Amino acid sequence: MATREYFSIFDTINTTAEERRRRHVLLLVNAVVLSWIIWCIVNWRNYAALNGSLLFREILVDFLENLVEVVALVELSIIYSKIIIRVFWNQKRTITRLFLQVFILSLLNALSSLAIGELYHLIYPEEQGILLRIFISDFFVVSVLTTTYFVSFLISRHRKEEEVRLLSEKREREQEIISMQTKLDNLALRTDNHFIFNSFSTLGGMIRTQPDDAEKFLQELSEMFRYLVRNGDRKIVSLRDEISFTEHYVTLINYRYDGIRVSIDKSLRKINAYIFPVSIQQLVENAVKHNRHGENNLLTIEILSDGDSVEVRNNILELKAKPADGTGSGLKTLGERMRLLLGKKISVENDGKTFSVRVPLIYEEELKDESLDY
């Protein structure tokens, strides 16, 4: 919005230049007519004592003087309003500031009235009632009318700026949601592709080495893919469903590998909470992938209830050679999803003997956000 628009007290919401000119003229006409009516009421005894040409001359002179005074006071008041707006506009908008602006405008109008009165005294020293007339009819009317326009402008422009600010904030929130949604979709896609690749790789290996167990493996795998399809568009799932999904995965890895023992705390099924899809399974998969396991190396993985989070803990049996994707990208992906969607963090601990990850649970009262589809 251009700064110059702040310098017209006739500019309110959705006004055009033509409308502002019309309001300006209307202010002048109203001020002249009202001040003249007030002066006629105050000065009626003087007019009643005159008649004929003297009465006409007196009325005409008074009207012309009143016209010049009012127009001068109105235009000066508009200039003062522009200056006040320039000085105060960027300050915090409060009721106190509004009253201060109105007081300053009224004070400046009063000083202008005094100045015009003194000027008339210099021109017409015999005119004793000119200052009284200016204050009674001109100053009062001009102050009331220009202050009304002034306050109307401030309120209207404040509302206009609030609407612009709210619209801007809404657009920023929409952009943030779109950006967050894009990031989450990309993260979810990366997770799903990773899991799919590993699942089929495992199945391919079993078909070659354990054909008798391949059918059972495929049944378990189909249950897992049914879960993925059913929850593919969801940001969160119930903890019970995620535990069941993880149990299917544990069954699959027990077909494929030796030396892995996974224990799941039964109390987890009793917790009425939510978690990201594939999050617990992914942590179990990471433990399997990044540690030795076999007849002489027992990898123990525990899935526990830990207050407001789920803890996945395993003993550390380091591999001689790290896997190609051993940068911890899966854990980073899970942490990024948690941060983007809920602003929470996962907790990772490694004391050299035990590796532990705690994933915060999501409860019913946190599900007010429409972006959390469940």
Written overview of the protein:
The strands form 2 sheets. This protein has a 5-stranded mixed beta sheet, with helices on one face. A two-stranded antiparallel ribbon has the order 1-3. The chain has 374 residues and is α+β, with helices and mostly antiparallel strands. The N terminus is likely disordered. It has 9 helices and 7 strands, in the order ααααααβαββαββαββ.
Key phrases:
alpha+beta, disordered N terminus, five-stranded mixed beta sheet, 374 residues, 9 helices, 7 strands
Main sheet attributes: strand count, strand direction, barrel closure = 5 strands, mixed
Distance between the termini: 43 Å
User: What is the helix tally?
Assistant: 9
Low-confidence stretches: 1-6
Average pLDDT over all residues: 79
Strand order of the largest sheet: 2-4-5-7-6
Quick rundown:
The chain is built from nine helices and seven strands.
Blueprint of the fold:
Blueprint: H1 17-42, H2 44-48, H3 52-88, H4 95-123, H5 130-209, H6 211-230, E1 237-238, H7 239-256, E2 260-264, E3 274-275, H8 279-290, E4 299-306, E5 309-315, H9 329-342, E6 347-350, E7 354-360
Parallel strand pairs: 2-4
Antiparallel strand pairs: 1-3, 4-5, 5-7, 6-7
Helix pairs in contact: 1-3, 1-5, 3-4, 3-5, 4-5, 5-6, 5-9, 6-7, 7-8
